[in-house]
Amino acid sequence: MSKDNMPKRWSKTTTTAFRIIESIDELNDASVTELAASLDLAASTVHNHLGALQRLGYVVKEDGNYHLSLRFLNVGMSVRNKQTLTRISQPVVDDLARETGEAAWAATIEDGWVYFICNARGEDAIQAYGDLGSRRRPHAIAAGKSILAHLPDEDVVEIIDETGLTPYTENTVTSRAALFEEFESIRERGFAFNRGERLEGGRAVACAILHEGEPIGSIGVSGPAHRFQSERFEVTLPDAVSGAKNIIELKLSSPS
Q1: Residue 227's closest CA among 156, 125, 158, 79?
Q2: Alpha helix locations (H) across 149-206?
Q3: pLDDT score recorded for residue 256
Q4: How many CB atoms lie within 10 A of CB 78?
Q5: Helix, strand, coil proportions of the chain in percent (round to 5)?
Q6: DSSP letter, residue 140
Q7: Is it the case that residue 6 has pLDDT exceeding 50?
Q8: Mean pLDDT for the chain overall
Q9: Pick the residue with more confidence: 251 or 6?
Q10: pTM of this prediction?
Q11: Whose C-alpha in 109, 132, 221, 226 is 20 to 30 A from the C-alpha of 82?
């Protein structure tokens, strides 16, 4: 093989390896046959990649099936903990959960996807929202909309083109025009709402975290619709989230 063709081969090999990793994650664990079928690859190809990943310690084989190893946890936590936003946000998120009694969280955006980097569960929370490291399309969640509202229009269009406007519920905004109109309201009032746009019966309030004029993340609270109503949803929780956002922004601006 010529040197000119080698980079393309390496790129294909890397892409296949990560497709296998993502498929194992989606299936929880899987056999070579199951992975080959789900990815439309030859079983021999899948087997070879799995062997390499197993030798590197990234997958584990048990009873003929493969699952991702805890080495990913080590890498993921290392990435998370090296982020300044994570270190600053976690104690603020903890306080917000205690103050509101709800599930509180902080998130950031990368390559058009929202990633949850901190969370905490208040005493009334049904469950913690946003598993650490989980990613969401930004258009259907308060965290994402609060960030998008503060990005240049051309950047938002690029993100939407990449991640799409998937209709999760009948409340999901899938019109670009309607979404941009909502962004104007978010900028005016300073926070974003989620009214069951990704999960039926769920609601959320979020504020963008700005640093040097750029939206680098968001902080918010989530809970069931029956508790996120009237003045509490429209005023009390937004005030609490806005206060938490201000604390984070001040800490980001303070000399280390």
Answers
A1: 125
A2: 153-163, 176-189
A3: 56
A4: 9
A5: 50, 20, 30
A6: G
A7: no
A8: 89
A9: 251
A10: 0.77
A11: 221
- Distance from C-alpha of 241 to C-alpha of 205, rounded to nearest angstrom: 7
Give residues with Cβ within 8 angstroms of 146, minimum separation 6: 186, 191, 192, 206, 207, 208, 215, 218, 220
CA distance 77 to 81: 6
With a cut of 80, say whether residue 99 has pLDDT above it: yes
Residue 176 scores a pLDDT above 90? yes
Beta-carbon contacts of 112 under 8 Å, excluding residues fewer than 6 positions away, are 138, 158, 159, 162, 163
Sign of the dihedral defined by the CA atoms of residues 164, 167, 172, 176, in that order: positive
Low-confidence winner among 62-71, 84-93, 129-138, 177-186 (lowest mean pLDDT): 129-138
Q: Which amino acid is at 211?
A: H
What's the rounded Cα separation, in Å, for the pair 108 and 214? 12
Sort strands 192-195 and 202-211 into parallel, antiparallel or unpaired: antiparallel
Number of CB atoms found within 10 A of residue 204's CB: 30
Please give the structure tokens belonging to residue 1.
């093989």
Which stretches within 28-170 are classed as H helix? 32-39, 43-55, 71-81, 84-100, 142-148, 153-163
Torsion of CA 144, 148, 151, 156, to 10 degrees: 120
**Mean pLDDT on 12-24:** 87
